[in-house]
Specification:
The protein is an alpha/beta fold. It has a single domain, classed as Rossmann fold (3-Layer(aba) Sandwich), CATH 3.40.50.150. It is built from 8 helices and 9 strands. β4 and β5 form a beta hairpin. The radius of gyration is 16 Å and the shape is globular.
Length: about 220
């Protein structure tokens, strides 16, 4: 699975992963993460999620990164914002109203862009990546976040034999394996959502949970 897979999905409008509302687990648990207003929050593989605008409305600076130029342009258009645009080695930076959205590869993101991030919000990045890329993503990209960085991670968990991702199943053991070396991990909630996701049931998935994790980098 490469960058072309996701850019093709956006070109064809096959974006069932996009939510037309702010993520409920974000609204419920963000305050519990303990990130002060004004802090810079990293939102990887952001798409055009409304969660970025919600975080900005809470007083945060937002740093998002997204491969698809279609997603980036649609985000600002739908928010009625006209971003300033700067081209850099790690992508095309669009910025307006406290939101900086980089159109580029998350693995190529300049370390200086991450070193000021006191917060991390990941709802759709970890579960979008197959296993080898998940390791690279956590150990290479998240390793550039500063000590003390706090985050909210949202994962999905289903029997892996019943569906091929994306989104991929990431169970508790894998979260602890990936993050246990460098992060303090705390389970906030594990919720059964199969009844809310008929598409999964139609594919033969018999159990589906979403889990919210609170993270703090050592």
């Amino acid at each position: 699975m490469d960058a072309g897979f996701w850019t093709q999905r956006w070109r064809e409008g096959r974006i069932g992963f996009h939510q037309e509302r702010v993520t409920p687990l974000l609204e419920q648990y963000w305050d519990a993460v303990g990130i002060v207003p004004g802090a810079r929050v990293f939102v990887p593989l952001a798409g055009k999620t409304l969660d970025m605008a919600w975080l900005a409305s809470r007083g945060h600076e937002v740093l998002g990164v997204e491969l698809s130029p279609i997603a980036v342009s649609q985000f600002f258009a739908e928010q009625s914002l006209e971003p300033g645009i700067v081209r850099a080695a790690d992508g095309v930076h669009h910025e307006a109203a406290g939101i900086e959205l980089v159109c580029g590869d998350v693995f190529a993101l300049d370390a200086r862009s991450l070193e000021r991030c006191a917060g991390l919000y990941d709802r759709a990045a970890l579960i979008a990546l197959p296993a080898p890329l998940r390791e690279r993503y956590v150990w290479d990209v998240h390793s550039r976040l500063p000590s003390g960085c706090r985050g909210l991670l949202v994962t999905l968990d289903y029997p892996p034999s019943e569906k091929q991702g994306p989104p991929f199943t990431v169970d508790a053991d894998e979260v602890h394996r990936l993050y246990g070396r460098d992060w303090h991990i705390e389970l906030l909630e594990r919720r059964d959502i199969l009844d809310e996701q008929p598409g999964f049931a139609a594919e033969g998935v018999t159990a589906l949970h979403t889990t919210a994790w609170r993270l703090r980098r050592r």
